[in-house]
Amino acid sequence: MIPGGSVRRSVTLPRGVTQMTVGPGDDPEGVGGGSRTATSYGLGQLLGQGGEPRRVQAFDGELGVAVARAQEGDEAAFAVAYRLVQPGLLGYLRGIVGDDAEDVASDAWLEIARDLGRFKGDGAGFRGWTATIARHRALDHLRRQKVRPRGTALENDLLELPGVLDTHDQALESLSTVQALALVARLPRDQAEAVLLRVVVGLDGPAAARVLGKRPGAVRTATHRGLKRLAQLLRAEGVVEGVTEDGARTLGESG
């Protein structure tokens, strides 16, 4: 069972796993250690003690094994997959539906559990597959409410892209959650969503493009512009000196 969450739903899993409750607010301390899973979806929560980067992609091998075992009916393995994916998935959904993210995440996990036997791929592929399901559920939710996706009010922190810790990362690390949310909220929606998929969910460019239904080049451009804009905002906020408008192409690349 996965602890936490105020709204819980019974999920019937395929191939021998009887039931499992999925709480949309669940954010366990981590699989194998508190530093391994984000607890507030911020950059710092995926950094190990001492500042060593803890990248989402670093656990794709473990995730792939967990998914394969879950497909064979291993409930504990499904819990591992959930713990590795849920923080980023919930963070991404907050960027689309705001305060309704937990309810939408719950709906998404019901579908993920139901269709788990149909999934084919590795850990990275599972992240993309679950993000696609979550995005569809989010857009369905918005259509029911007859509202447009959140334009700039995206509620999430930024996590690191693959690469060494650089000035951008250090600056974001120094921000409070409120400050980080305010900065992301100032990005155009296409840029913010691309950045969230890349750095929060942990997808590569082609996978993010598939989730968004766009060309990889368009997503790459949106991500680049979003991160460039964040560098401008960081400099304007006086968070760190030396962050330039045309410095690093990603949060994880040195300027």
CATH architecture type of the largest domain: Orthogonal Bundle
Sheet with most strands: strand arrangement: 1-2
How many strands appear in the DSSP assignment? 2
- Percent helix, as a range, is 40-55%
Count of individual helical segments: 9
> Which range does the strand content fall in?
under 5%
Q: The CATH topology of the largest domain, please?
A: Rna Polymerase Sigma Factor, Chain: A
What is Rg? 17 Å
Could you explain the architecture of this structure?
There is one protein chain. The protein is 52% helix and 2% strand. With 255 residues, it is an all-alpha fold. The chain has 2 domains: 137 residues, Rna Polymerase Sigma Factor, Chain: A (Orthogonal Bundle); 71 residues, Winged helix-like DNA-binding domain superfamily/Winged helix DNA-binding domain (Arc Repressor Mutant, subunit A), CATH 1.10.10. It has a two-stranded antiparallel sheet with strand order 1-2. Helix 2 packs antiparallel against helix 3. The radius of gyration is 17 Å and the shape is globular. The N terminus and C terminus are likely disordered.
